Amino acid sequence: MTKQLFSVPVAPTNGSFVCTTPSDAHDNIYLLTFTSGADNRLTPEFLDAFTLSLDILEHQYPRGVLLTTSGIQKFFSNGLDLEKALSSPGFFENYLFRVFRRLLTYPMPTIALINGHAFAGGFMLAMYHDYRIQNPKRGFLCLNEIALGIPLAPPMRSVFISKIQDGETLRSMIIEGKRYTAQEALQAKIVDGLGDLTDAVQLVLDRGLLKIASSPAFVAMKERLWADVVDSIDSLAAHDEADELKAKRTVDISEEGKKRMLQWEKSKL
């Protein structure tokens, strides 16, 4: 029988994060289900509730394995509420990237149970988990920033570059904004399996994940494994500055090319 441990509200949407133990046989498997608005947009309030839920679980309950999923059938998360993100001072550093880092270095193995669409920031959120199980019957994974005309900030791209080794997959994902079905995501090794909660629990048992969090080296192992991703968050200002310098150099090269083109045009007169 499912046992509810705690609930954290997402006040503006009357939503919540509800933590339960879905398996009678394994009390230390925790399921955190989030439901907020129509599609679980990553707002400051949503991300604050996520952070608090992680804090409560870490400091009030025994180590185990954390599964996260959506209480909305159609969506895992549809990404950022751009209007709110851009109007909330420090949104990326103080809300979004804080949750990303927290998940990446969380002291329990984490599994994103992707039950529906995971677009843009929702896809990133899933990637910051240790493992991913996707619903084989519903939902796409997609980075659609290319369609929105929004470059990926360092923490938004580093997790994909570090966790996905195939260059063709990265090109299709980031440059083309490809939508991945569950079967395509599994083939590309973006997700670790297909299925539902039962399959996610089975992955925990098959991989012995309940034992892993008890190791005193667990967090340090993750920090070192994903050192480049952690650095993209912890040294965000330096990475942003490097991006700006690269962008300026690209503009300068283009302007130099324009001058050469004009000289070529003039030479034909």
UniProtKB/TrEMBL annotation:
Gene3D superfamilies: 2-enoyl-CoA Hydratase, Chain A, domain 1 (3.90.226.10). The keyword Isomerase applies. The keyword Transmembrane helix applies. SUPFAM superfamilies: ClpP/crotonase. The chain crosses the membrane at residues 106-128. Keywords: Isomerase, Membrane, Transmembrane, Transmembrane helix. GO terms for cellular component: peroxisome. GO terms for molecular function: delta(3)-delta(2)-enoyl-CoA isomerase activity. One of its GO terms (biological process) is fatty acid beta-oxidation. It comes from the Eukaryota. Pfam families: ECH_1. This is Enoyl-CoA hydratase/isomerase family protein. It comes from Talaromyces stipitatus (strain ATCC 10500 / CBS 375.48 / QM 6759 / NRRL 1006). The lineage of its organism: Eukaryota, Fungi, Dikarya, Ascomycota, Pezizomycotina.
